[in-house]
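User: Okay, second chain of the day. Same drill as before: sequence in, C-alpha cells out.
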Amino acid sequence: MKRALAAVLALVATVVAGCGTDGQESVLDKDQIVIAVRPDLPSVGFRRPDGGFEGFDVDVAAYIARKLHKQASYIGVLAADRAKVITDGKADLVLATFTIDQERKKDVLFAGPYHVSYQDILQRPDETIKNVRDLKGRRICAVKGSNAAQRVVQEREVPAQLVPFDDYKACLTALKSKQVDAVTTNDVILAGLANQDGTGLKLANAQFNEQRTGVGMRRSDVPGCEAVNRAITDMYQDGTAARLLHRWFGKSGLDLSTVAVPQFEGCS
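Assistant: Same drill. C-alpha cells below.
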C-alpha cells in the first residue's frame, strides 16, 4: 500500500513539475508555441507585404523558440493588447516592446529583460527639442497601451499635453502634420520609425527613463520563464544579441558600443 501511495505521489509531482504553478500548461509542455510580435514598428516588429514578420524582436523570438526546441508561429499585437493575448490564451510569449513595470506584473510574468534601452524623443527637422524638459507645454503623441508619454508627465513631472492615437503610424502622421510636437518611447522604436519614414525626422538623443523590455508570459509559468532567461543569457554570451542589434540599428546612430547581458527581474 505504501509503495502504491509513493508511486501516486511521484506521478503527481512529475505532472506538477511540467506545468505552471497553478496547474496550467507551461510553454515547456508544448511542441508548438504562438509568439505575439508588433506588426507596426519598422526594424523592431513589422508585418511584411507577404504577411510574415521581421525585426529585432522577431529575431529574438525565433532564437528563444529554437533554444526551447519549439516550433513557433507568430501573430501581430498592438500595444493595447499585449497583456490580453496572454491572459486570453491567444499567445504563449509576447515579444513586442513590452516594457516591464509593476502594474503590468499584475497580469503577466516577465522573463528577461532581453534588451535595455532608453526613452527618447522624435521630432520634426525644424524643432529644437534637446531633453525631456523641453516638452513643457508641448503636445506629445500618446499611443494607446503604451505608458511612455504618461511617464513624461507623471515621473518626470513635465506639464505636457498628451494626445491619444492608436499606433505609431498614426503618431508619425500627426507629427508631420503638426497635430503633435513630439513622439516619445523606446529609442529603438523611434530609430526604426525615422529610418523608414525618410523625411528627416530626428532623435533628440535625450536618453531618459531606462526601458527594460521583457518577454510577457502567463503568470503561472515560472519554469518556462526560467528557461527563457537561460535562452536570453545564451543569446548575449554567444554574440547573437550584439549581431542582431547591429543588424537592425547599426545605422541609426544608437550607441551599441557595449552590449551586456541585462540584469534579470527574476521569475516570481
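The two ends are 37 Å apart (CA to CA).

User: Thanks, on to the next one.
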